[in-house]
Specification:
Elements (H helix, E strand, L loop, with lengths): L6 H21 L12 H12 L9 H4 L2 H16 L1 H13 L4 H10 L8 H31 L3 H16 L18 H16 L1 H10 L8 H25 L11 H14 L15 H13 L12 H15 L6 E2 L2 E2 L2 H28 L4 H12 L14 H28 L16
Antiparallel strand pairs: 1-2
Helix pairs in contact: 1-2, 1-4, 1-6, 1-17, 2-4, 2-17, 4-8, 5-6, 5-7, 7-8, 7-9, 7-10, 8-9, 9-12, 10-11, 11-12, 11-13, 11-14, 13-16, 14-15, 15-16, 15-17, 16-17
InterPro entries: Cat_transpt
GO molecular function, one term: monoatomic cation transmembrane transporter activity
Subcellular location: Cell membrane
Amino acid sequence: MKSLLYPGRAVALVFLLAILCGSILLSLPVAHAHGESAPWVTAFFTAVSAVCVTGLVVVDTGTYWSLFGQSVIMLLFQLGGFGMMTLATLLGLLVNRSFRLRTKLIAQAESHVLGLGDISGVAKLVLVVTLGMELVIMLLLTLRLHLSYGLPWGEAAWSGLFHAVSAFNNAGFSIHGDSLVRYSSDALILLPVMMAIVIGGLGFPVLYDLRSKFSDPRHWSLHTKLTLSGTAVLLVGGFLTLLLFEWSNPNTLGPMAWPEKLLSAAFASVSARTAGFNSIDIGALTHESWALHYFLMFIGGGSAGTAGGVKVGTVAILALLVIAEIRGRTDSEAFGRRVGSSAQRQAITVLVLGSAMVVLGTLVILRETDFPTDQVIFEVISAFGTVGLSTGITADLPESSQLMLTLLMYVGRVGIITLAASLALGEHRMPYRYPEEQPIVG
């Protein structure tokens, strides 16, 4: 029993339990728009995608599922993005008014960059920021949908709520068959969604740091500085590169006026980093833009937030390691701080295992389908990075390939977190060291 309560295992098991419960609920006739029982693979795939805040779908969310089914999906990605263990920590706080060490350790496995003393403050911040942001975005979207698009108040409110929760949790689910393509020229729809995606994707440790030391950037943690600077580089770089690749593409940005091109390129850059919404046809992008999406989707967002991927901080640490090696320095440094060797080893491990999962998933699906390699790679990275963007092949994949995608989504949402937590919590010093030798590298 104690082995099951190990923090990393607890996170994985609770997410798995949520998936199983969601699958059962979505299999009920009441969850289907026509009162039928959904096929098991369809219900299971949708539940995994929702809990893992991915957004890949094999059926149209708005027409296949009933209001009950859509509500279940929204609840699942709210729980998945909010963090199962953060939720458990908050419940423990409300009931016991204090945190036991085991509860703190389990919560730390969900937000592993934190120290134990930060868990209580971050858990409270998670609740306030999540509900506050979702409420604000919902109100903005509801007003816009009712006043400008003529939707009845009830329909506008449901659409606003669903998309607000989906955006903040970086889930990518939409009740529209075309995602947000119908709003591609509407800044009052896309900008609030972008804001929710970015804030949710920064990670709660960063938000906690900003809240407590907003006016004193010099005392921000190295993690916060690396995440903010890395996020800015990726957002701006993705925006400019997408403009370059798609400016004249007649199937995407080509027919748009330049303000709309800027808006759609910015939205695509933000959404590619695990949000999964799209305001332009992903299947019509150039191959260069697909390759850019591989990069953005694999990296993802900030640690201990609603985003997926191997995380901005991981890639930033590796970049610092490469720069230090090129310069012939023994230490990786940034912002007047030295990156610990343990963090460097963990970053390398996460990147290598993440890359291995992408390669494995690609090989398995290529063996089972005749789809082009670039489309399969896009699908696999989107699943592993819990992004949810697709070139349009998800529903046409055989069930075995769809199940492979569910494994990638689960590992992407849970496995990397569990791995990092296990490394951090399981580190110990050996009582001896072997003689050192220098193998040839390169």
